[in-house]
Write a structure and sequence with these properties.
TIM Barrel, about 450 residues, 8-stranded parallel beta barrel, binds 5-hydroxymethyl-3,4-dihydroxypiperidine, 15 helices, single chain, about 15% strand, alpha/beta
């Protein structure tokens, strides 16, 4: 079994969460966001559940930080909700700033490094009304938000990520309609695919001008596998790879977008998008990598671009139905270092699995998660040995929480949450991780 001593000195072991998924948006003067309205629309979210109470972390944050500490973790990846800090998307809510101030101080008091994410999907409804990420102006409002929250917390956080998972923000939400705002529109998609990176660039520029160090972005990656070795399926898989895994990192590191994606999105891109690429391609201090699974694709003749279809694979699956494929994590860590970021620090900012966990006699046995976690840690260790500059690993998630369109049904936590009583019960994977991370002192 791996322990912290199998990793380089200073390697950060952490757990991750996000504001809307745990805090409870009904509390503390938080404004409405597009997830509230998306969830209230029948058919979008399992049982139409929303994040209004979630894990009530807004009131129970001290207990939750204690859980991180008792697991011997070094860091905590959290996000600061735009709708909590600026309920109308523009004006600051002092209560929101005070909450995050207490939270960061609480981390430092426990010796936890705060890794902050600025956008983990709470688009204030007032800005969603104006078109959200399809509207270029939203990018400037995001830079204003980034400045306001950083003026308050910037002196104490270890790292800041601008955006979490641009692919989900843009493609999953505007092309596939699975996440808020639930659009299925190629023109909206093209705009969101570009504007989310423009927002990143504007925020980065603003925070750099303030002298803020250690700025990055968190991208998600999905291993692309062709369903067969036919040239058509290979091309379908390459296209998926370009949409999911190359668009954002190439925008940032090469200041251009993959040609096979522009073939579909090109006619719908914002005018003069090329003029934004220098801003988007500013150097990063670190890259965050979220990795969960792989997908097999085949060519789908006779369907509109991108003309591909999902083909089920044969590996064991998680409660989300996602195949378990740790080799994919090793693949991306090596590939990103080799093709894109060189020696830049990389953090695995999310990796984890959902499982139908139950409490029995006050305990939760989730051996399957323990095995998932340690095989992905082994893949990370191997990537370091193979030359990738990986500096940390954050498990998703500390707590069972609001899994977006899946409501509260899918449990990703190291800690079980009873959504009736809100009781927290550390699972066996939590205890295994705490043992692996124990220090000698
Ligand atoms: O819960 C999400 C998280 O908000 C973003 N990354 C993937 C997780 C699991 O789906």
């Amino acid at each position: 079994m791996l322990t912290r001593f199998d990793f380089p000195v200073g390697f950060v072991f952490g757990a991750a969460t996000a504001a809307y998924q745990i805090e409870g948006s009904a509390f503390g003067g938080c404004g409405p966001c597009h997830w509230d309205s998306f969830a209230s629309t029948p058919g979008n979210v399992v049982r139409a559940e929303d994040g209004s109470r979630a894990c009530d972390h807004y009131h129970r944050w001290e207990e939750d930080l204690d859980l991180l500490k008792a697991a011997n973790l070094d860091g905590y990846r959290f996000s600061t909700s735009w709708a909590r800090v600026m309920p109308d998307g523009v004006n600051v809510n002092p209560e929101g700033l005070d909450f995050y101030d207490r939270l960061v101080d609480g981390m430092l008091a426990r010796g936890l490094k705060p890794f902050q994410t600025l956008y983990h999907w709470e688009m204030p409804s007032a800005l969603a009304d104006l078109g959200g990420w399809t509207n270029r102006d939203t990018c400037h409002r995001f830079a204003d938000f980034s400045e306001a929250i950083t003026r308050r917390l910037g002196d104490r956080v270890s790292a800041i990520a601008t955006i979490n998972e641009p692919w989900c923000v843009a493609w999953l939400s505007h092309f596939m309609g699975v996440h808020a705002p639930g659009l299925r529109d190629i023109r909206a998609t093209a705009r969101a695919m570009h504007h989310i990176l423009l927002a990143h660039g504007l925020a980065l520029e603003r925070l750099r001008c303030m002298g803020q160090p250690n700025l990055g972005i968190v991208l998600n990656f999905d291993h692309a596998t062709p369903a067969t070795d036919s040239p058509e399926d290979q091309a379908a898989s390459d296209l998926w790879d370009a949409i999911f895994n190359r668009w954002f990192i190439e925008g940032i590191t090469r200041r251009t977008y993959p040609a096979n994606v522009l073939k579909g999105l090109g006619p719908h891109m914002p005018e003069n998008w090329q003029d934004d690429m220098a801003l988007i391609g500013q150097p990063l201090d670190w890259l965050g990598v979220n990795y969960y699974t792989r997908h097999l694709h085949a060519h789908a003749p006779g369907t509109p671009w991108p003309s591909l279809r999902d083909v089920p694979g044969e590996l064991p699956r998680t409660q989300m139905g996602w195949e378990i494929y740790p080799e994919g994590l090793h693949h991306f860590l090596i590939r990103l270092a080799r093709d894109h970021v060189g020696d830049l620090p990389i953090y695995v900012t999310e990796n984890g699995m959902a499982n139908a966990d139950v409490v029995e006699d006050g305990q939760v046995n989730d051996d399957v998660r323990e095995s998932f976690l340690f095989t992905h840690l082994a893949a990370t260790k191997q990537a370091i040995a193979d030359g990738a500059n990986v500096r940390g690993f954050f498990y998703w998630s500390l707590l069972d929480n609001y899994e977006w369109a899946e409501g509260y049904e899918k449990r990703f936590g190291l800690v079980h949450v009873d959504f009736d009583t809100l009781a927290r019960t550390p699972k066996s994977s939590y205890h295994a991780l705490a043992r692996a991370l124990a220090r000698n002192d």
